[in-house]
Amino acid sequence: KQRVILMDPSEDPDDILRANRSREKTYVFDMVFDYRATQEEVYVSTTKSLIEGVISGYNATIFAYGPTGTGKTYTMLGTDCEPGIYIRTLEDLFKALEATAKEMDYTVSMSYLEIYNEVIRDLLNPSSEFLELREDSRGSIQIAGITEVSTTNAQEIMQLLTKGNKQRTQEPTAANKTSSRSHAVLQVTVMQKSRRQAIGEETRIGKLFMVDLAGSERAAQTQNRGKRMKEGAHINRSLLALGNCINALSEKGGSRAQFVNFRDSKLTRLLKDSLGGNSRTVMIAHISPASTSFEESRMTLIYAYRAKNIKTQV
Question: CATH homologous superfamily of domain 49-170+179-218+228-308?
Fold first, then answer.
């Protein structure tokens, strides 16, 4: 339930000289799922507990991370009969908000965007131009001109997401027929106001980010050339920036506390509040069981293991 043991496919059990240099490694996580796990199990163990926090005004972030073709989009979006984390989270969020409806007025707004080759595209309004990141007076990052949709219905959001996902940049590569070539970010903002007219009325704002990252990839495996190769370089660059931020955050408070450079890519700048600060963050790392993906699986597990060591100050 909590351990992943990664075996080296090229190891020969009879090779005595290399017996002490085995590349077999064990990683311990909060939760480990094998191929039999259902969407429901993954959702309940990773994300369900975050909803309460969003309603109380905390931020929450869920990442899907891993090499190309390991099922990140399936975990996040799912299929019609096996919906993923997006839909399950929103359904439970609306149920929880309806339970407080007698005392609180609430509005839920959402936006859905992709970061492709370091430019931001609005997936709910794909005809619009590329969007810019701006910082407002309170220091929070806003995206100028993004479409925000207010709704109180999870089905409506599902339709919008499915429509938005069709606008996502997907191209076939040798590793994956429908490889996502961009990072998709679904941002849900919950605002609540008490119905009792009190002096000094407070508004609670909780933000929920759900991020389906593009797969990290090696050009040798995806056999990319030309345009695909450039895309792959951009994808890897923003994932490297995210990795650098995670490294710096996980060493905070240690002997060599580092500066966290969120400005290296648009992805990390957008997720600045979700990595450090008052946010609960879950990373769902995906690996492939194939022996050809040994290196990718190893790097993914190291990356996720580092993310586990991040401690944030609220």
Answer: Kinesin motor domain (3.40.850.10)
